[in-house]
Amino acid sequence: MDYQYPISHLWSTEEIVDVIHFFQSIEKAYEKGIEKSSLIEAYRRFKEIVPGKADEKNICNEFEEVSGYSAYNVVQKMKQAAPGETIRL
């Protein structure tokens, strides 16, 4: 990883850690796969921190620009996956 995660200076340390965990879950979906339940948990926490759709889109677009990984595509696949399925892109 040769990039920085998009974070807000308004977030607490715990929130920053949780947002980074979500983006690491996105990376994991691309690199080796992640269980749907783990991804759902990370995404739910991310949405608690970033509840607005516009903010979510901006932060995820920033992440995609620096990493090449699309959080949108991973989340869409997660929503379509069966319980217990491994999400891979």
From TrEMBL:
InterPro entries: BH2638-like_sf, UPF0223. It holds the Pfam family UPF0223. Belongs to the UPF0223 family. This is UPF0223 protein D4N35_006775.
